[in-house]
Each structure stands twice: as structure tokens, then as C-alpha cells.
Amino acid sequence: MADEPLIRTDIPHSARIWNFWMGGKDNYEVDRVVGEASLEIDPDIATMAVQSRQFLIRAVHYLATEAGIRQFLDIGTGLPTMQNTHEVAQAAAPEAKIVYVDNDPLVLTHARALLNNTTDQGVTTYIDSDFHNPEQIVSDAKNVLDFTQPIAVMFMGVLGHARSYDDMLRIVRTVMAAVPSGSYLVLWDGTTESQAYVTLCAEYEKSGGVPYIPRTGEEIRAAFDGLEFVDPGFVPITEWHAGPTDVGGTPPTIAARGGVARKP
Q1: Which side of the chain, N or C, has fewer Cβ within a 10 Å radius?
Q2: Given a cut of 80, is residue 244 above it in pLDDT?
Q3: Hey, which CATH number is domain 14-262, 3.40.50.2300, 3.40.50.150, 3.40.1080.10, 3.40.50.300?
Q4: What is the pTM of this model?
């Protein structure tokens, strides 16, 4: 019998800290300690966590309704919270298929319970894989998704874990090369526009967690090269298709940019 993957409770983990910032309960004492310390360095990080989920909700809803997408590949999904990708997509299109990808044992443990609330018509499943192996992700996803039909590929605030900038571009481009014309890339990440965020990432690495490398807006935007942006393009995530009720009036200023773009 294979051993259960080890969940380390003595080392902080970004997915669990993110869950803490969003008000979730799927985290440990070490995550809460680092999460609180991070808020001291960059109080806007909790806002970024909440607003990133709002961006996901708006982007997935747009793709499922206006773009007619029925397949989603959410890479580096993190811990489930509220209105996860499959819930948003299947609310609009019950037949939608969603493949989540993550390699964190706690995420995968929670995934098993989460799959119970998928629709009868649709499919929701998880792949245990590291995004540094995009060829393996594509191979495994082909067991569920039809790669002759458009797929929405999602990297939601995770690519800072790529080992290098070249690796980041390789990962995105390998997956996008595998999906057909009419597919979409949905991507956001924190940027170096905020010194507090840059400092937070540096301090997080000292805690023993897997390093997270903030990059410039131009570097992140380059992941969309060769694709056609959906209006309003590559923007702060609070400005992407946001109505006044989404962000409580004036959008908060956070160092997070992203967009949605179509493969010609």
C-alpha cells in the first residue's frame, strides 16, 4: 500500500496561509503565525487574497457564459474556499468539465471532499502534479478534457513559485501550445510595484516555505505573448470586469495584475 503523502505542520505553506488570509480554517498554527507576520509587513496582502478570488469568479463566469468555454484546467489551484472554479463554471454551464492541478497533500486531501458537490452532468477532478512538469499535466488532463476543443488554462497567483523567469514562461507556453485555437489563458500574479509585497516574499522564504518570486508587470504580461487579450487587457485585477459592488466602490490599490486572453 502506498504511503499517504506527508502533510508538514511545522513548515508554513503558501496555500494554507492564503486560506488564512481569506478567512478559511484549513491552516495550521505555523501558517497563522507567518500569515499574521506577513500582514504586519504588507497589510494589503489580505485584500489581494480576497480580490484574487473575485477576479477568478468574474473571469470564469465570463468564460462560461460569454465565451462559451466548457473545459477548465486550473493549475496550482490551492485550497478550496468559496466559489471555486467548478462551482462558478457549472452554475453557468452544468456540463462543464474542470481539472484542478496541485501537488500539496493538504489540497489533495480536501479535494476529495470537494468533488462531492460537482454537477451530475459535469466533471470535476484533481491531478496530483507539480506545474514544473507541464507535459505531464497535459498528458494527465487528456484523460478528462478534449484537447480538440477550447480549454481555459488558469494560473491564479501561483507562478511566483516557478524556479526562474524562463521556467515560468516555459510552463505557461508548454500548456498553451497543447490547447487548440479558441482556448484561453487566465493568469494573475503579484508584482514588484509594491515594496511591501516584495519584502513579504523575501521574509516568507526565510520562514522555510517554498520561495515566491515577485516579478514586474512586464514580465508577467509576457506570459500572454501571442494571445489576444479580452478587454480591458492586462490590468490590476480589481479593474477586470469589475462592477462597483464587486469592490465596494473605488477599487483598492493592490500590486496584482492579470488578464484573460484568447489563443488565435
Answers
A1: N
A2: no
A3: 3.40.50.150
A4: 0.91
Rounded percentage of the chain residues whose pLDDT exceeds 70? 94
Check: CB of residue 187 under 8 Å from CB of residue 258. yes
Average pLDDT over residues 79-107: 90
Which residue carries 513559485 as its cell? 161
At residue 16, φ and ψ (nearest 5 deg) are -75, -35
Ranges 42-51, 139-148, 221-230: which has the least confidence: 42-51
Residue 169 CB-density burial (10 A; 0-12 exposed, 13-18 middle, 19+ buried): middle
Beta-bridged to residue 186, according to DSSP, are 154, 260
